[in-house]
Amino acid sequence: MSIDLSQFFDVFFEESFEGLDVMEAELLNLQPGQEDSETINTIFRAAHSIKGGSGTFGFTSVSNFTHVLETLLDQIRDGRRQLAAEHVNLLLQSVDCLRALLTSLQAEEEPDLSVANTLREKFEGILGAQQSQDAQTSPSREVAPELQTYQIDFKPLTHLFKTGNEPLYMLSELSELGDLETHAFCDAIPDIERFNPEDCYLSWRLYLNTSHSESAIREVFEWVEDDAEIVITLCGGLFENDSAPEVNIASKTDTESQVAQKETQNNTETTQKPTAMAKPKSEVNKKSGESTSIRVGIDKVDSLINMVGELVITQAMLTQLGEQEPTEHTLAAMQEGLAQLAHNTRDLQENVMRIRMLPISFVFSRFPRLVRDTSQKLDKQVALKLLGEQTELDKTVMEKISDPMVHLVRNSLDHGLETPEERIKAGKDPVGTVTLNAFHQGGNIVIEIMDDGRGLNTEKIKSKALANGLVQATDELTVEEVNELIFKPGFSTADEVSDISGRGVGMDVVRRNIQALNGSVEVTSAKGVGSTFTIRLPLTLAILDGQLVKVAQHTYIIPLISIVESLQIDIKKVSRVGNGLEVLRLRDEYIPIIRLYQLFNHEGAIEELDKTLLVVVESDNHKVGLLVDDLLAQQQVVIKSLEANYQKVNGISGATILGDGRVSLIIDISGLIKLSGLKRPGSQELLVEQELEEVMT
User: Fold this and answer.
1) Cβ contact 418:453 at 8 Å
2) Catalytic-residue membership of 48
């Protein structure tokens, strides 16, 4: 057998990324001269845990880099150094650096150490400058911090190796705190016949002469505190060799017996030293920002267990009824049991969906750093308000909405908020405010990104749109229609290109990504007051409210959220335009008709327009009509990915299994419009719109 430490990699990476999030959040709360010890300790503990874990797993690039920033943090928390703004900025850069190093290691790639080396030099420069300053303030003598000697009795439990921990790394880390003398007790090592190379038989008595506190020593062992007996006591001095018990004594961190045990293990091929490029058993998630696991509260697990128990009881009842002779009584009981089974299944479905629901604070937490860094670049003063942080939504939706929200917040910071001078001139507080708010509304979650800035400049937007040919000078547009122009591809009102905005990309991508989640985004604005971007999203992507429709002998599902209305066609209001395309005049609009049976190459469908039904759907602010034979039921369906189980199919977003066991395809409205040829590649406009204007006028 071998001890494969790679099985613990996933947990290490997950906890390390969580630790970096904690560090970043606490660093953003630090104000030089006003910092509290608990905040500094929280940051130090997070860095220390990352260092300890990375050292245990052999990720030396991370542990070596973390050591130098940990040294700075230790000096700050011990009062040997005052926190400065320079330190906060450097530590925040270090969080980014560590995140990049860990992401590379998680993806089994060789990490780029250029940034880490640059930051390390800056840390060493600060630490070296402090030592030089201490020498200058006391030129007649060296700085002599108070030293104390601790006796540390460290007795690992037998199973320590199986938890992925290695005493050698802990002893090495202790030696960095001061002068360490190590005594190993090897009397518990059994005969070779009973020797198990996966068990730990050694224990140690250690003497550490150090200026660090007992808490710093205990932090070295925090990874194994539940897997070892650890006693730390203050004593008079280092253990004298002449009074030592009869044990093997070795310097610093190793002992002859420890080496002997490790050699024995190596000879029997029972240990595996992890390397930075070792491959975990499970496939790593190479997409930055996406987590491979969810932490679930015990209450949700208990609820699931209760639901499964109810299902088992109902299933047992139905099984018993199925074995009885069919009578009127048993049939009635069977129907009651089936109704109970349906009720239990719905409850189980809801509880399983709750497992994937996470508070949106996981997304909101990235924005304090974003606002801080961006406002510094723009030389603006900004306060960020976060509301509704405990509002829950599906994990998948949360991961996919993060990037669109970044675009919108940057837009508010760059285009929305004025400079402090402009705000004072307008009679406003020099500190602008950006507010993120989330709340539930019906079966959706609503996210608002609000700012109290200058508002959208409708004149400038329309002028840019005219110059880009997006509108005509004769077009009469409402304020809402002008504001909508900012979502057009390539549109930007920035006067110059920067690394924040002005490249003509972003807002159209925001809308497209949100629509891919079956959501919508709209903007409202008032000049001099501010702007609000409102995002509406389904709570989950795993379940869909759909309308079942019949096309020939096939059943398709149209998302209810995309349906505007369904109607019988008045043949007198149907016209033909270029390329034989049919359009229906519906009130003041002309709706292109897509014959689904032609698009999907089905035979046996109803072809006469007046004998069919038209389902009017909307996507990308365009309406089209889908010709179907009949409307069936409306129901919730569980979405299964075609791309994951088969391959990507244009015009189809997924599939589901109906109650009768048949597979039904779910229509992707946006993809269907492209598949039909109604939209020119790379364009947001329908090809038919210009022809309609020419023919119908």
Assistant:
1) yes
2) yes
